[in-house]
Design a protein that fits this description.
Elements lengths: L29 H4 L3 H10 L2 H13 L6 H17 L3 H9 L28 H13 L3 H24 L3 H24 L3 H12 L7 H13 L3 H16 L8 H18 L3 H14 L4 H13 L3 H14 L1 H4 L2 H14 L3 H15 L12
Helix pairs in contact: 2-3, 3-4, 4-5, 4-6, 5-6, 6-7, 7-8, 8-9, 9-10, 10-11, 10-12, 11-12, 12-13, 13-14, 14-15, 15-17, 17-18
């Protein structure tokens, strides 16, 4: 959970969390950055959110956190765990205790004895994002959008600031954060079918800092499909393939890029109800990466549309057995349970068996009600 970048004008020995040259950072591990931070990160990776709450509570009671930024790091993991466990009221109360995230008390220069030579905010970026998202969970959609757009301006200001000072590493970090916030905003607009805003946001990014982002171009193509602009979507997907030939893969690995291209082709086939061809594209993805859960889920749906319920169920069951940590998400489980209901008279017993298995292996935040028992 990275913090906002402090000043990189300091000497390497007093450098911030994101150095102009990452190899010069004095922090060799997460634990060098913050007390037992690697343990919190491991628990988060496993989805052990209740354990995170216990660990944070213990650290606070025993006064194990000595520096201001350590309290903020633990605070961030704590509110993230509360969000994952859907305790939104508790999150709101916790965030209210911080008051203004841009208050001087959260600046490194306000603690010169602890952080000599550093300046800037010590508020983790993830905490700013959670602060923006939480009103939506409490039924305040417009407040979340307002905060997200404010956060987007904040990120863009940081990109310009780091770029003007020749701090390329930090600028790249803030560019990724800018795209992350834009994707969050797009998600909210898509949920209300506000497609025009989404297209405008993506084109704005693509015409500026993110010309070489095939994932972003693909997202544009997906939205164009949703609004019925098939030719526009095809043009976007063709541009993605051209980017591959020019080795403009963005942050994607070669396998991730190839699978992105296959999934784009499959979507066009799906629009034309050519499910056989779509299955072929998804199978290529799965052959390259057996944990491509989007391809796995969509292949199963295509087989269902082809009235091959038996094979569609096998695809999802095999995925849960092979890569449970990746395949175990609510969307896939909902689809599998729907297929059980269509295929079997005794679907309640089968879903109960699935639910019992999920209870043993699922992360703390998994919504078990998706099995619809």
């Amino acid at each position: 959970m990275a913090t906002d970048s402090p000043s990189e004008d300091s000497t390497p020995a007093a450098d911030g969390f994101i150095a102009s040259d990452p190899l010069s950072s004095p922090f060799g591990s997460l634990n060098d950055l913050c007390y037992e931070l690697s343990s919190l990160q491991e628990l988060a990776t496993r989805g052990s959110w209740r354990s995170i709450l216990d660990k944070v509570s213990r650290a606070r009671k025993l006064s194990l956190l000595q520096k201001p930024h350590e309290h903020l790091c633990y605070f961030s993991y704590n509110v993230l765990a509360l969000i994952k466990l859907r305790r939104y009221g508790d999150v709101s109360e916790e965030l209210a205790s911080l008051e203004d995230l841009d208050h001087s008390i959260y600046q490194y220069e306000s603690h010169p004895d602890v952080y000599p030579g550093r300046s800037g905010s010590m508020i983790p970026f993830a905490l700013r994002w959670i602060h923006a998202e939480i009103p939506l969970k409490l039924g305040k959609r417009q407040e979340t959008l307002d905060r997200l757009y404010t956060l987007l301006d904040f990120a863009r200001t940081r990109v310009d600031e780091k770029g003007s000072r020749g701090l390329g590493v930090s600028a790249d970090v803030w560019k990724r954060r800018e795209v992350f916030v834009v994707n969050s905003i797009i998600g909210h607009h898509l949920s209300h079918k506000e497609f025009g805003v989404c297209v405008s946001l993506i084109r704005q990014l693509l015409s500026g800092r993110c010309r070489d982002d095939p994932a972003l171009v693909s997202k544009l193509g997906c939205i164009q499909l949703q609004i019925g602009d098939l030719e526009g979507a095809k043009a976007s997907f063709e541009l993605v393939e051209k980017m591959g030939k020019e080795e403009r893969l963005g942050s994607l690995s070669e396998i991730e890029f190839k699978n992105l291209v296959n999934r784009n082709k499959a979507l066009v086939y799906l629009v034309g109800k050519d499910y056989v061809s779509a299955v072929r594209e998804y199978e290529e993805c799965i052959e390259r990466d057996g944990s491509d859960v989007v391809a796995i889920n969509n292949k199963a749906l295509c087989l269902m549309y082809l009235r091959d319920l038996s094979d569609s169920i096998k695809v999802l069951e095999n995925a849960l057995e092979r890569v449970p940590t990746v395949a175990l998400n609510e969307t896939l489980v909902v689809n599998l349970c729907s297929m059980y209901e269509l295929a079997y008279v005794n679907h309640s017993d089968i879903k109960r068996t699935l639910s019992n298995w999920i209870a043993r292996v699922a992360p703390d935040d998994f919504d078990s009600s998706c099995t619809r028992i």
